[in-house]
Amino acid sequence: MYYPKLKVVVIASLLITFVIFLSTRTLIVSGQTKKSGDITVARIIAEEKADKGNWLAHGRTFNEQRFSPLKQINEQNVGQLGLVWHYDLDINRGVEATPIVVDGVMYTTGAFSFVYALDVRSGKLLWKYDPKVNREFATNACCDVVNRGVAVLEGNVYLATLDGYLDALEATTGKRVWRIDTLTDRARPYTITGAPRIAGKNIVIGNAGGEFGVRGYVTAYDAKTGKQAWRFFTVPGDPKKPYESKALEMAAKTWKGDKYWEYGGGGTVWDSMTYDPELNLLYLGVGNGSPWSSYVRSPGGGDNLFLSSIVAVKADTGEYVWHYQTTPGDKYDFTATQHMILADLSIGGQARKVIMQAPKNGFFYVLDRKTGQFISAEKYVMVTWATGVDPKTGRVNEDAVGTDYSKEPKLIMPSPFGGHNWHPMSFSPLTGLAYIPAQDTAFPYSNDPNYKPGKRGFNIAQQPIPNPEDETGIKQMVEGSVGYLLAWNPVTQKAAWKITYKHPLNGGVLSTAGNLVFIGTTDGRVVAYSADKGQQLWEAPAQTGIIAPPISYSVNGEQYVTVMAGWGGVLGVIGGDMAAAAKVKSHARVLTFKIGGKDILPPLPPDAPIPAPPPMTASAEVVQGGRILYTAYCATCHGGAAVSGGVIADLRHLNQNKHEAFVGIVQNGIASKGMPSYTGVLKDDEIKAIQAFVIKRAHDERASNKGN
Predict the structure, then answer these.
(1) Are 255 and 19 within 8 A, CB to CB?
(2) Helices marked H in 172-318 — which ranges?
(3) pLDDT tens digits for 649-663?
(4) What per-residue string of b and e applies to 528-556 under the rule 16 or more CB within 10 Å gives b?
(5) pLDDT at residue 6 is higher than 60
(6) If phi over 0 gives left and psi between -120 and 50 gives alpha, with beta otherwise, what is residue 362?
(7) Could you give the residue numbers annotated as active site?
(8) For the whole model, what pTM was predicted?
(9) Torsions phi, psi of 5, nearest 5?
(10) What is the band of 703 on the pLDDT scale with cuts at 50, 70, 90?
(11) Which member of 9, 82, 95, 209 lies 3.0 to 4.6 Å from 214 by CB, making a disulfide possible if both were Cys?
(12) Is 115 in contact with 107 (CB distance < 8 Å)?
């Protein structure tokens, strides 16, 4: 007998079942069925020591140690490691993300805040999310349009976008659940490049813009609703207005002058934050002053709290608990935004709960993470700005005479690149060593007494590096600049071993229970060393420079190692010829390895021929003026004074048509590529001076190539 109504009901039932399946897509991993993005705070805590095979938080677990307990891949078989799959991203710019891996699904990000969900076994794209970032925000990004990753909690993926929004996405589909505007003042040149962090029931995010003139703050939002839970400003605002907290009232006493709040002050928390669920504290790594020069920012001195500090606040309320300032009165861009690690160490026969950091200023710090009490600090790279840290007070002993650049330039180490930049370090509880992507670099700091804030570009109150005709300033930065993979004992404050690289700003670090340390390099390699001795055991080509940190995880009993590859970041964008020396291209991709992997990277397309530049007709005076303007307005995207950033178009290689349209392009911008209009910012003769500088450097390049 035929029952048409029953047929309709059956079909409808099947359709409903199918829709429910799609909306709650599950993964069967190791005999367990889990909902996509099924992460809780309790689960992250439980997996801190367990060999569960996931990478659930930014540093794998809340302690941010970036240590994997997996050991299927070990020092005996790492030589059999092979590429198993690769996935090319949409935009070839700098890649700095740490992927999150949950039960066989990887959530990661690329340039302009794109989000990708990938199957970790095959590299198959499950979904992609484009937040439609306002491309003009590229000019507010000091160091490329990068993004350092997402947070995942209870079925949602949380993304902070370059243009200042916090988006909650369904982990299953990538569909947006809610969006929050995190910026307090869209007239200021804020950006966000950092990854959101989980802190209890909240999602926390800071911002960037310290080189451009902003006031730093951190905001916590309820993970379910997006409702603001609290906000903590890191530097005081206008003293004529009420202070937002007692902590800022205290901090204001350490600032001098009557304009610091007009400049913004800086203090952005643009990267590192670490959550301690046991103490319910959130540690904030606070950035540099805005502008860099304290002689301009805070005439008369002062420590300028909370610049270049680690600040502990209550995770639920944002209430200030303690702070430790690594660089009082920072005038060097010595941020304390670098990676912070929590660990339990035996120091002097006493068990201590510590927080560790190797900030830009060149000292490795060990602090009591409950109280902020100073335990120890020693130089881990070449340092000339200070002689040491007072063991009793914990205050750095600055070489006031040798670092006073108020009236004349001073060559100082480290440079603004830092002894260690944002690239995460790792700590192995098995070896007791911290593994730091460190470097030695120098910089000629020079105060600009005539500084006036500009509408666009760097606002750092530094005079331009000396004339490029002799390139003295550039050589001072480049010569002797080297990178290291440094194994550091935080108890003895001494190096255990060190690997030297030709270039600074190499990728972040992963350590594993297989007695291995993994790192990606500026010159385009993924390398593994023995964690105890630093012996190189394996390497693989990436065809592009690597600045992001590797991760490791397992699915169905197989261990994988993944690294985001893609040349860019600070060295790629503003490093000039220093970047070109690494001889890498910008090619953004995900690389995943396992034992016996057989995937092969296809060859990259050849470089286009370099066109001949127009005749050089401008005077030396015009060229020099153009150089100063270029440094102020163009270097953040197109490379440093040597005009060879290696990420965006090298302007020395413009064709004749582009040179003929040069003034119009700068005036009107190209929004689709992130090029804003400079109408009202630069006059036609100033734009032509910039073009003259570009042409001059193009001729210099051709002359140099002929000489080679």
Answers:
(1) no
(2) 246-252, 260-263, 294-297
(3) 778 888 888 898 889
(4) bbbbbebeebbebebbbbbbbbbbbbbbe
(5) no
(6) left
(7) 333
(8) 0.91
(9) -65, -40
(10) confident
(11) 209
(12) yes
